[in-house]
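look at this record:
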Amino acid sequence: MKMKWFALSVLSLSLGAAYFATGTAAHGAPLAASGYSQDRGGWDAPPGEFREVQRQGFHDGIEGARKDFDNHRRPDVNNRDEYRHPRVPRGLRDDYREGFRQGYDRAMHHLMGGPGPGPGPEPGPGR
């Protein structure tokens, strides 16, 4: 009887270790995704010309869009407290909001499966 419990415990531990070694968390998201692949130049990478406060706004906009999407809220950047009342110095609020709006819009288009705004200008007709 003790050998059965010992074998079951070893099997459980090895399966658990294998699960976490694959780099997935409880919801199947990669553990390294905390930065949303912003360092890799994906859809969620802020434009290179953004200043630091714009980058922060961009990231916060992505987070706000994800929260709205997950909670089935109507996509509207103006409904986000972080956008209306940013916690940055008064002189940086416009830059923060610009980054927030772009991050929010890009994330909503991505989450809803639309072509949406990409990392750069979209090609026009004949390009």
